Amino acid sequence: MTQFVADRDDRGNATARCNCDECPEQIVVKTNYITRVGDRRPIEINKTKALMRLQDVGWTYVKNVLRCPKCEANRKEKTVSKEPTIVTVTPPAAPPLRQPTREQKRLIVAALDDAYDMTNLRYKGLETDKGIAEMLGDGTMPGWVAAVREDMFGPDGNEEMSDLAGEVKDWMNKVDMELAAIKTAMLAIEQSRAEVKKYQDRLFKIAAAIGPKAERV
User: Fold this and answer.
1) How far apart are the first and last CA of the chain?
2) Which of 3, 120, 175, 208 is 20 to 30 A from 159, comparing alpha carbons?
């Protein structure tokens, strides 16, 4: 179907009969002809002017396709429907942390009564939260033991760790003292070397003054 057809109205004015490319709808708009009277070429309308008239009444011309207002509305509706729908998915809530049963709490307290030194506020021997949990078994978690210990007994740590920390501290003090002694000895050696250098310089001066005779000295 031809989009633009040259025509004239009842008064002889130049017009363009415009046909929708997607339906039988037609419209006639005023325009002018590019081809002059007497020209042998086919009549050619002023397409630019015709499109301006069409735009005023809701027609569109997109990618060489002429559409009436109804077809243009349908095109826009299809375009919107093709756009992807964004769906927000809320991640599932994290499951609640597993909690000890009353029986497990009682067993933890009983185990801590035996393994924890309330006087020094530490585990006896090599015991730890993890060790208590493994001893009780039945799914007992070290975190449960730690929570009961902090709430009812005292801080973490054990006898072996405290003793080892004390030994490490003693050894570090001993090393520091030995390093200080070495520094003092090195300072004395440097001072002695400086004194030796003074005597050596005096000896060289005397030898230079005596001359060859100094070789027999």
Assistant:
1) 134
2) 175
